[in-house]
Structure formats: C-alpha cells, structure tokens
Amino acid sequence: MQQLSDEAAQPVLRADADGIATLTLNRPDARNALSVGMMTALADSLDAAGRDPAVKVVIIAATGPAFCAGHDLKEVRANPGRAFYERLFRQCSDLMMGITRLPKPVIAAVHAMATAAGCQLVASCDLALAGRSARFATPGVNIGLFCSTPMVALSRAVGRKAAMEMLLTGEAIDAEKAVGLGLINRVVDDTDLMTEAGTMAATIASKSPLTLKVGKEAFYRQAEMDLADAYDYTSGVMVRNMMADDATEGIDAFLNKRRPNWSGT
C-alpha cells in the first residue's frame, strides 16, 4: 500500500526497459493538467532521460481519463497577476522547447483527450501515436483565451488552414482526422497503443544514438531556414556525420551484411 501511495503522489512516473524510458503523466484526477509542479516534474524527467546513456528513446504516456487537459485552470485562477502568468507560460514554452532540443527522439502515446497545452505537448513530440478514442483540441477560444502558445507547435505540425480551424472553432478532432492532418503519425486500437508505441521506440532504439542525436537536431534547425541555407547547413552535418565512427561501422556492416555494433561516437 505504501508503494501505491508513493506512486500516486508522483506527477510523472518513469519506467525503463531496453533503452526506452516511458514517462507517464500521473495526475489523473486533474486530467493530467500542466500545473507548475507537473511541468517541473516532466522537464526534470526529460532532462534526466536525456542525460542517461542507457536511454535511447523516450515515450510520453498518461494515466486516467485524459492524456492532458492543458494548463491547470484552477491554479491559474488561484494566482491572478502578470508575474505568475509570465512565469507559467515561459515555463511551458521552455518545456516544449526542451522536448524539441532533447538529444533523443520523443514519442507521444495518446490514449484519450489532449486539449490546449496538452495538444501542444503532442505536437511538440517528434512522433505521436494515438488510440482510436483519442481526441485533440485547442479550445481556448471557448473561454476567452486564444491558444497562442499551443498554436506555435500546432502550426508547425499541420497545415495553416487546419491549424486555424482548430484554433478559431475550438472544436475537437478525432484520431483519424488528426493523422490525416499530420498531427499524429498513426492510429491504433486503444488496447494496442502502448505495445505499438514500444515497437516503434524499439525500432528507433536499434539505431546509432549519435546518428539519432545529429539527425534530430538537424531536422529542427533546417526546418526554420530557407532552402539554400538548409542545404548548406545539412551538407556540413552530413560531412561531420560521415566522419563519425558509427557511420564507418554502419556502412561496413551494410556492405558485409551484418548487424552494426554502435559505439555512439
């Protein structure tokens, strides 16, 4: 019973297996709302996973009836004032940027509703799988608070017209529509969600950790450049990558039809 009590008190749970760290949002009674405490715990857990050489891939999952309901509105109303609002949204922005900058791939496994900053969390992850019952929305407009920060991640994951429809109407979309828009990668049966996320993570974890780090960083940096600058930048990345031991090992393994033995260098 003590173990259950301790676990219930933790806003983010971590479980590791075979190079995969699963971080589970654990405020089910609050629909995993991103309180200051929750964001701090998630950021700390991501940072720890990022620094752990045994971790190759991170999965973000959740407990309870919702994946994430966005910001904790009760906490927001209990702390009125510019200073708190500035700290809150800066913390949230830093959390989302931390996912993008983490040197390891992050997969969202969405089992239910992801709204506002919860939808932002999904859009910020490198990959996302969702159960068929999952829903996604940016409904701030319904309560007089436009989802401006969620808009940043959303508008980089889906087309502008689709993002504006979600932002202006506040209406939820189902998982099938979300995959069509590019917000998530794949829809699976609810009962298969974590198995499928684990399979995807295991496939990625089998690759060179150095190559994953180099590739993820390059992907996000080149996406903000114009075409010529992007090619100049990625050409340099390719050269540096080719000089790495793992590139030599990978090419030799391919030519000799054997499994590569990654050194991470």
Helix count, per DSSP?
Answer: 12
**Spatial sequence of strands, sheet with the most strands:** 1-2-3-5-7-10
- What is the subunit arrangement here? single chain
Shape: globular
- What is the CATH H-level superfamily of the largest domain? 2-enoyl-CoA Hydratase, Chain A, domain 1
Tell me roughly what share of residues is in helical segments: 40-55%
Q: Mind telling me the C-alpha Rg?
A: 19 Å
Give the biggest beta sheet: 6 strands, mixed
Strand percentage lies at 15-25%
- Please write the string of helix (H) and strand (E) elements: HEEHEEHHEEHEEHHEHEHHHH
Distance between the termini: 45 Å
**Model regions low in confidence, pLDDT < 50 over at least 5 residues:** none
Structural class: alpha/beta
The name of the CATH topology of the largest domain is 2-enoyl-CoA Hydratase, Chain A, domain 1
What is the number of independent domains? 2
What is the tally of beta strands? Answer: 10
Describe this structure in words.
It contains 12 helices and 10 strands. The longest helix is centred in the middle third of the chain and has 20 residues, at 82-101. α5 (117-124) packs parallel to α6 (148-157) and α10 (209-223) runs antiparallel to α11. It has a 6-stranded mixed beta sheet, sandwiched between helices. Strands 4-6-8-9 form a 4-stranded mixed beta sheet. It folds into 2 domains: 2-205, 2-enoyl-CoA Hydratase, Chain A, domain 1 (Alpha-Beta Complex), CATH 3.90.226; 209-255, Lyase 2-enoyl-coa Hydratase, Chain  A, domain 2. The protein has helices spanning 2-9, 36-51, 73-78, 82-101, 117-124, 148-157, 160-169, 175-181, 193-205, 209-223, 227-242, 245-255; strands at residues 12-17, 20-25, 57-62, 66-68, 106-110, 113-115, 127-131, 135-137, 173-174, 186-188. The termini are far apart. The chain is globular.
